[in-house]
Specification:
Bound molecules: adenosine-5'-diphosphate, alpha-D-glucopyranose
CATH superfamily of the largest domain: Glycogen Phosphorylase B
Strand order of the largest sheet: 3-4-5-2-1-6-7-11-12
Number of domains: 2
Number of helices: 17
Helix content: 25-40%
Structural class: alpha/beta
Strand content: 15-25%
Largest sheet: 9 strands, mixed
Number of strands: 18
CATH class of the largest domain: Alpha Beta
Shape: globular
Length: 492
């Protein structure tokens, strides 16, 4: 099958969060199943043309955004896994310091135009490349107009007759909602400005367009699929429920060849479930790096995250103060919201021997934290899937999570009688408390035998893409079968 993956992030080229991990890994697994897969991304400034040996295709294309004809080039490279990755290069929209926002943290005011441009440019580029996908798989609101163009302006375009479109919701909190005039700017016709297609309470909402018009919709865990249909759809409940059985929840996986403490070159010492000594050395290395006392028996917590309210930083900051008299250390690596940064900075300044914060996007330090800590804090208010808890497990670091979304699907409370479970779970909705859960987990931490069993359970947890890729493949197969039926029906 010819599959085109379209997204605004993809590891290792550009990463803000887990979307990049998914778009960087899923294609490798689809390729292993024998599919012909290409990825298409914006060419952001920091994607280093030399490092990735980017080649430029010998044509220049144009698409209309509002009144301006935006010209662009297409660059490409082939990854080690022999996947072709294409980049849409337009200086005006993508040659900037940030991805979605400037260094001040504020979203770019023209994000609407940037991603209208991207969606149109993707569709023009594949025509120029003569690549006819059986499935275009779009991710998140930035790509949400692609299914909309296919069902409106392009519905009679023969180039796309055999093309179906799948859309994956990674986070329904970001929707891309703009005023009705966007219809004109994006080149749609007012006749398509209806509730079934483009209109959303007299606005255009890119996420809603995609949910309404993609041939299949999925999200990144079964529990989140249920939650967004029932109570946490942020206004999308009606449209999601209009196709209740067609909204799939497919759990993400992680790339175990990359997140592997046995081969990881960025950590102080390697280890695996057969020999955990290296993990102790990683902890000591991290304690030094944080300026903490080096002590094996101090209970050490980590967190590597976008600094966003979604991730429960109010809960984390309160916990730092509540737990200040316990033999614990905390290290947090994150970038994002300034208010959260300031609160974390205050906590670190007032407890320098216990709390270390790094405000950066830093891949190497992330690995050191996953490897060096005993436990991983993830009290997210909502979590579509969450990869950090899976990565922590891969390093034998025990997640402490709120029961929501993908965290519910991946973390099971450790039962010290049955020795089952891979972490600690509390439930904010039932008034359960993070600090109390941390204290309960400390009892297990102090019981070395139980903690060892728990670490082994974590290391034995398996969230590989092997299983989930088959679910995506089935989704694509169903789409192409439907398309075939549709074609036979329409043409006969
Ligand atoms: P989300 O996508 O909501 O941010 P996930 O848990 O799905 O959350 O994925 C987060 C990914 O981003 C993980 O791979 C995590 O290690 C990485 N990450 C987040 N913040 C940073 C950071 N400041 N430095 C390095 N990696 C980070
Ligand atoms: C989003 C979600 C996160 C998920 C990631 C990858 O950023 O917040 O929960 O793991 O996408 O799907």
């Amino acid at each position: 099958m010819n599959i085109l993956m379209v997204a605004s992030e993809c590891f290792p080229f550009v990463k803000v969060g887990g979307l990049a991990d998914v778009v960087g890994t899923l294609p490798k697994y689809l390729k292993k199943l024998g599919h012909n897969i290409k990825i298409i991304l914006p060419k952001y400034r920091h994607i280093d043309g030399k490092k990735y040996n980017l080649q430029t295709l010998p044509f220049r294309l144009n698409v209309q955004v509002g009144k301006s004809a935006e010209s662009f080039r297409v660059k490409y490279c082939t990854t080690e896994d022999r996947i072709e990755v294409y980049f849409i290069e337009n200086m005006h929209f993508f040659n900037r310091d940030g991805i979605y926002s400037s260094s001040t943290g504020l979203d770019y005011v023209d994000n609407k135009e940037r991603y209208i441009f991207f969606c149109r440019a993707v569709l023009e580029s594949i025509k120029a490349l003569m690549f006819r996908p059986d499935v275009i798989h779009c991710h998140d609101w930035q790509t949400g107009l692609i299914p909309a163009y296919l069902k409106t302006n392009l519905k009679n375009d023969g180039f796309f007759w055999n093309t179906s479109c799948a859309f994956t919701i990674h986070n329904i909190a970001y929707q891309g909602q703009f005023s009705a005039e966007t219809v004109v700017e994006a080149g749609f016709s007012w006749s398509d400005f209806t509730p079934e297609k483009l209109e959303y309470y007299n606005n255009i909402n890119f996420m809603k367009c995609a949910i309404a018009m993609a041939d299949a919709v999925s999200t990144v865990s079964p529990t989140y699929a249920k939650e967004i249909k029932e109570f946490n759809g942020r206004g999308m409940e009606v449209v999601l429920n209009s196709r209740y059985d067609e909204v799939y929840g497919i759990l993400n996986g992680i790339d175990y060849s990359y997140w592997d403490p046995f081969t990881d070159k960025t950590i102080a010492a390697n280890y695996d479930k057969n020999n955990l000594n290296g993990k102790k050395l990683c902890k000591r290395d991290l304690q030094k790096l944080c300026g903490f006392k080096v002590n094996d028996s101090t209970y050490m917590f980590g967190c590597v995250s976008r600094l966003d309210n979604q991730k429960g930083f109010d809960i984390i900051v309160d916990a730092l103060y509540s737990l200040k008299n316990y033999d614990m250390q905390f290290v947090i690596l994150g970038s994002g919201d300034d208010t959260i940064k300031n609160r974390l900075k205050e906590a670190a300044l007032s407890m320098p021997k216990k709390v270390a914060v790094f405000f950066d996007y830093n891949e190497k330090l992330a690995h050191k934290i996953y490897a060096g800590c005993d436990s991983y804090m993830m009290p997210s208010k909502f979590e579509p899937c969450g990869l950090s808890q899976m990565i922590a497990l891969a390093y034998g670091t025990i997640p402490i999570v709120n029961r929501t979304g993908g965290l519910s699907d991946t973390i099971v409370y450790y039962n010290h009688f049955t020795k089952e479970g891979n972490g600690f779970v509390f439930n904010i909705t039932y008034g359960e408390n993070f600090v109390q859960t941390v204290l309960k987990s400390q009892k297990i931490f102090n019981d070395k035998q139980n903690w060892h069993t728990l670490m082994l359970n974590a290391l034995n947890s398996n969230f590989s893409w092997d299983r989930s890729v088959l679910k995506y493949e089935k989704m694509y197969n169903d789409l192409t079968i439907n398309k075939l039926k549709e074609t036979i029906f329409v043409r006969s």
